[in-house]
Structure formats: structure tokens, C-alpha cells
Amino acid sequence: MDLIKTIEEQQKKENALLYKVGDTVVVHFEIIEGKVKRIQKYEGVVISIKGSGVRKTFTVRKTSYGVGVERVFPVFSPRVIKVEIVKTGKVRQSKLYYLREKVGKGARIKELLGPKANARIAASRAANKAADQEEAQINAEAKAEVQAENA
């Protein structure tokens, strides 16, 4: 048991879970296609956070061309580069599965305004500064590989 706990502690990231259910977030995650790595952005509403420890996951829902799309991301995955908070949501439930039946204006979530919301967004931006450098490095490597293939 101690071995498992030590391995889990090594995989944890600091400031990994600054967002909450109801927040609109942009998840930057790394996709590997063959030898090429690239960063893809996925923007949507966090509708649930499940699990504990290293196995913790969060589900992000967005509407793409009129179709609801959900994606589950592991919180401590090395593929998740950063998670930016766009808007903070004001909700009173831990799971927002009711949004699956809602369309258009009915699927909106009230925005949490004020100093608490501003503090959470500022903390998210501060935590993502190191991730910005990592993302820039991955993008530069991808461009270099594309240029090498075209040459």
C-alpha cells in the first residue's frame, strides 16, 4: 500500500483543481499523431468531478454543431497541459447532468460575479504560467517537424 501511495504522490500536480462544477473552461491537452505532438483546445462547461486521488476526473460538455459532446479528462494526466477558467458558474449541485436535456438558452448557467470569482480566475492564470511555456515548446517542436517534412 505504501508503494502505491508514493507513486500516486509523485504523479500529482500542484494547483490542478482550481475549477469547480459549473465553470466554463478551456482544456489544453496534448495529442500525439504518429511522431507529431500538438495541443488541442476543448472549451465547455464542467458538469462533473468524480473520483479521488490520482484517479480524479472531470467531465466537460460543449455543444458542437447542435450536438452535445462530452469528454472526460483525468485531472492529473500529463497530457492535460493546462485548464483555463473562462467563466465561473453559480450552481448548487455537484453534477450537472440535467444540461444534457437542455438546449439553447435553457442550457445556460448563471455566472458567478464578484471578488471570489475574480480570485479563482486570477489563481488559474497564475498557475498556468508555467504551462504556457510548455505549450509554446510543444507548438514550436510541431512546427519544426512539419517544416522538416515539407522540406
Mean pLDDT: 85
Count of DSSP helices?
Answer: 3
Please give the alpha-carbon distance between the first and last residues.
53 Å
Number of strands: 5
User: How many whole angstroms does the radius of gyration measure?
Assistant: 17 Å
Order of helices and strands: HEEEEEHH
* Main sheet record: 5 strands, antiparallel
Structural class: alpha+beta
Shape: globular
- Within the largest sheet, what's the order of strands? 4-3-2-1-5
**Which spans have pLDDT < 50 for at least 5 consecutive residues?**
none
Strand content: 25-35%
Helix content: 25-40%
How would you describe what is shown here?
The termini are far apart. This protein has a 5-stranded antiparallel sheet. It is an alpha+beta fold and 151 residues long.
Nutshell version of this structure?
By secondary structure, the chain is an alpha+beta fold. The protein contains 3 helices and 5 strands; from the N terminus they run αβββββαα.
